[in-house]
Amino acid sequence: MTAHQPADRPADAYTDASHATDASDAWKRAAAARERASRAEDSARRHDAWALESGRELHEDLAAALRATAACHRSSAQLQEAFARRMTRWAQGSGARPRFMTGVAEACGSAALTLVDTGQSRLAVAASDELARSAQDLEFMLGEGPIRDATTTRRTVVASRAVIEERWPCCGPALTALGVREVAAVPLAASDLCLGAFAAFDPRPGLVGARACGVLVAPEDAGSDEAYAYASAAGARELVLDAHRRGQGPGPSCRETGDPVPRTDLRGPVAHQRWPSYVPRALDLGYTHVAARPLRGRERTVGALVLFGDEDRPLTDEAPVLGQSPADIAAIALLRDRELHRSRTLAGQLEHALTSRVTIEQAKGVLAAQRSLSLDEAFAILRRHARARRRKLTVVAREVVEGRLRFAPPPA
Fold this sequence. Notes:
Elements: H1 11-54, H2 57-91, H3 101-108, E1 110-116, E2 122-127, H4 130-142, H5 146-153, E3 157-160, H6 162-167, H7 171-177, E4 182-189, E5 194-201, E6 212-217, E7 228-231, H8 234-246, H9 250-257, E8 261-265, H10 269-274, H11 278-284, E9 289-297, E10 300-309, H12 318-371, H13 375-388, H14 393-401
Antiparallel strand pairs: 1-2, 1-5, 3-4, 4-5, 6-7, 6-10, 8-9, 9-10
Helix pairs in contact: 1-2, 2-12, 3-12, 12-13, 12-14
């Protein structure tokens, strides 16, 4: 019994109240994030209007930055809502205790996770405490820092004390003023793409109890060739991709079932029997233990987060649980990035189709004027010419418009 607990009230009542408070706080943080997103969207619309009135690019740039900020706030709200739902289910006796970025902080100090798109713009952010959040904001405002270096160079960044200020002349002194003495940032990188970076400020030994981690991205509606992987080590990335191609290993199992793969000792007979081609290669790379968590977003499984341990740094019991929060963040960001890529692809196709149509219509007008033909007759000539020479109609039309192709007049 604690000094503040009345004798007639059971301890479970305080535990339940604490769980309810945690869930309530998460819902409040989500609501605040959505409110910030709404304000950013409103400001973006105002700058769009000012850009139209003044024609100044500054307002266009500000509007784009505000929309990106709003997207980050919406992603943060989705994460907080997911955490609140898990906390509520746990308080009702279902599942294990969820641990958000505060759980990561318990394992490795102040921690920040930043996910970026192909242009290094932030897609989503999460921080364990005020120090980590302030460090993220400093990098965003000053354009330099450990997370930015990790995502642009795709290499682990480690700095301490005076090196922090020397390496980042603007951001470094601000970080040390916050009390940061050491920082480590690890990228989630593939051969041609970087998903983001995880940073720990004043990190503790062991980090999250894993030697390496990898992310398999293979949405259910994607083809087999569309899968790709990010990892903190080159060998881990190739292992994750090879496992997906062969359909063996913790990543494919987690993706197919949507269920976590618990910590598994690869040296045991069960693992050899379950993943006969996967285990030897993992052991050759020095990994002795693996675990996996599903990447879920909007009730869809889009891949898996795979954690690796070895004899020097075995997987801890907390590692898979701590891995779920980065997995949730990654899933939401990946879905957003995939949808954005599809939208851009569709917009490009529509723009190409519209440009081609305009060129063909112009060529019809030019030919009709030159030969005193109707537009339909001019189009028929263009089409016959393109088919006879196995050329694209758009290319032929462009040559007519530019005067590089002229048709001989019909015989008298």
